[in-house]
Design a protein that fits this description.
alpha+beta; two-stranded antiparallel ribbon; 9 strands; 19% strand; globular; Beta-lactam_class-A
């Protein structure tokens, strides 16, 4: 089945861009449409952090402390019952491996939201916007819920957003960077969520990726490398299925659509 047919079969609207790295070849499904980043924003954060470390601007061993005021609930230290401290590089690992929002907040504090925006501008990703750290996104949700208005967090025109094509552009920059990019690829390879992109590929294909999830929004971007050394940058975003956060059929469709696009390029 084609990527579009796979999205249609599970009742979602899908947006996809897959490019063969080192080549202009690509497969697209509404690749220039605006999409909500959700936790995919942590990839740009981690890349800017790694670049600052490489430039000697930050010490990766510097420690941050996740206090009660920082822990807003969720995976990793965000859901801890007690205060904890860890290094900046471990904050980056937590942010990408288990999508720890508190770790991402603390890392944004050190890296700087404006510096992440500057990175995106430097890479020419002019349609990618970041409103702030995860705590800033949560603040909009709380405000909009209290006011009884549609959530800005679900509207790509009013929250942190991008396009699938720009996200494979970001991944291409990470793939091409031998120092900071290599570190980000290592963190992405540690992600524990294997139910989307990774599930679409056979075990001999190495997948390094990051998910993003909100009600009715399921995303993942990543790099897939085949045993022959060929790599692909993949960005898949879906909208729909808002009745529950758990939709394994949509998760499978994300991986299957990515695989179908890569198979098309490999053929």
């Amino acid at each position: 089945m084609s990527p579009s047919a796979l999205f249609e079969a599970v009742g979602v609207r899908g947006f996809l861009h897959v490019r063969r790295l080192g080549s202009p070849e690509c497969v697209s499904v509404d690749a220039d449409a605006p999409v909500v980043l959700a936790s995919v924003v942590k990839v740009a954060l981690a890349f800017e952090f790694a670049r600052q470390v490489e430039a000697g601007l930050l010490d990766p061993a510097d420690r941050v402390r996740a206090s009660a005021a920082d822990r807003l609930g969720g995976s990793g230290s965000a859901g801890f019952a007690d205060d904890v401290s860890y290094s900046l590089r471990d904050a980056a690992l937590l942010a990408l491996s288990v999508s720890d929002n508190t770790a991402a907040d603390l890392l944004f504090d050190r890296v700087g939201v404006e510096n992440v925006r500057s990175l995106l501008a430097e890479l020419g990703l002019t349609r990618t916007t970041i409103i702030g750290a995860p705590r800033d996104l949560l603040r909009t949700i709380m405000e909009d819920t209290a006011a009884g208005v549609p959530l800005r967090a679900l509207d790509p025109l009013r929250t942190s957003a991008s396009t699938p094509r720009e996200m494979t552009g970001l991944l291409s920059a990470i793939w091409a960077d031998d120092v900071a990019g290599a570190q980000v690829r290592e963190w992405l390879s540690a992600q524990l969520s294997w139910h989307r992109l990774t599930a679409g590929f056979p075990p001999e294909v190495a997948v390094a990726s990051k998910t993003g999830t909100m009600p009715g929004i399921r995303n993942e971007i990543g790099l897939a490398t085949y045993p022959d050394g060929t790599s692909y940058a993949i960005a898949v975003f879906t909208v729909g299925g808002a009745e529950t956060l758990r939709r394994p059929d949509i998760d499978r469709a994300i991986g299957d659509a990515a695989r179908a696009a890569v198979d098309q390029l490999r053929s």
